[in-house]
Amino acid sequence: MAIIGNIIKGVIEARDALSKATSPVEEQKKVLIELLGQAKDTQFGKQYDFATILKSDDPQKTFAEAVPYHDYNKITDEWWNKTIEGKPDITWPGSPDFFALSSGTTGKNPKRIPVTKDMLDSITRAGRHQVFAMSNFDMPADFFEKEIMMLGSSTNLQERGGKKEGEISGISASNIPFWFKKYYKPGDEIAKIDDWDERVLSIAKNAKNWDIGALSGIPSWMELMLKKVIDYHNVDNIHEIWPNLQAYTSGGVAFDPYEKSFNALLDHPIQIIDTYLASEGFFACQNRPGTSAMKLITDNGIYFEFVPFEPEYVNQDGSLTDNAPSITLEDVEKDKDYVLIISTVSGAWRYIIGDTIAFTDVKRAEIKITGRTKFFLNTVGSQLSLNKLNDAVKHLEKELNIKVPEYTLCAKRFDDGFYHSWYLGSDKSLDEEKTATVLDNYLKEANKNYKVARSKALEGVKVNFVPQQIFTDWNGANKKKGGQVKMERVMGEDRFKEWEDFISKQS
């Protein structure tokens, strides 16, 4: 009998039963007041007169009117560079001990995002929130005694100017509470291995020594790790190694494109739980079955605003126009795409994280990630967001009975005009012209803007099949293998030329 598991499950269920209903809207108002109060004496707080905003009859409105939007370049040039130099009290009280490195999708110089103690506490509380939500999923008691494989970046953080730097998953794992370490795999020693391939090989060698009940990590890299374990032990599926595996916590990207290829690695379905953890914070997690939507964590040091994701408000590089309006949680609408804006306990203020989201349930504050502002394909008016591209690939998988976990595309000019040029990662190569027709027909049927574009300047779709390994090798060549790395789904023409040159050298 799972005695400890029953105790843990009982505590979780008791807490859930005793918890009071809360209002996400009211929680957000309180969070903003707390943020402004804590930061009013920083250089940023004085510049934008947080003390006066706090006295306003409507702090949310006054805050939005007083403080401009910031992308990473703007807030770094004007403020965070001072924080990086070690100066205290710039955008948040004190000086952070950590910086999260985020190289985005271009492989250029990494971003350095402050991670304060308050943010680490926020991430820990969000993790507890997720654990407590497990009471809604009816997991058996013995699940709470199993180990958790957390596949993130290396925890071997680098020293720079007296501060520690690494990807957010590595920072979070290096600050795991002592009581959780007995459940955490692959453990401190393996987690510190910098080289991704060496780390995964070590996981494969030790896999049979662990009783894994849950997985956590980005889908593309999780799949590669599972395949390595399966191949190393010469078995058919991962349940032959970890028979008690019952849940997978995905995060950071939509799971839909990976669903078919991920399930092929299992003996039977497991519970998929989506989370939304970025370098800037832990924003949301799925807290009930029957939906893949995630509940915004609205009482945890992060204040959210939302800009309607309309072409007139979003520039081609993903930045916002000066006149882009923002709304609060109180005024959002269901099934409408928004650019997510955050203000946090790490001193990010009206910060454009680059993601787009949509609300699936306004009252519950439940969302889904719909894409990236930079991955919005609007050349010649086609207006395709990432979720629409993912839907098209999912349709393709079903229609042609293939698995396509990775893809990228570009609106590229050929001699006879613009085409959407797709590269599909699949180890099963099909007729490319037929595949292009299936994609084109689906997009015309599902998206009126695409259909209009096809009747004007967009000539059609071109498709190329490449092995799935090409995408992994591309990320590796850009020094971005493993951890928080996400493949860029939409590329500009210059970047796409680099991609096609890379492919030509592989053949």
From TrEMBL:
InterPro entries from the UniProt entry: GH3, GH3_C, GH3_M
Coiled-coil regions, chain positions: none
Residue stretches making up the GH3 C-terminal domain: 388-492
A Pfam family: GH3_M
Residue intervals of the GH3 middle domain: 297-363
Protein name, entry field: GH3 auxin-responsive promoter family protein
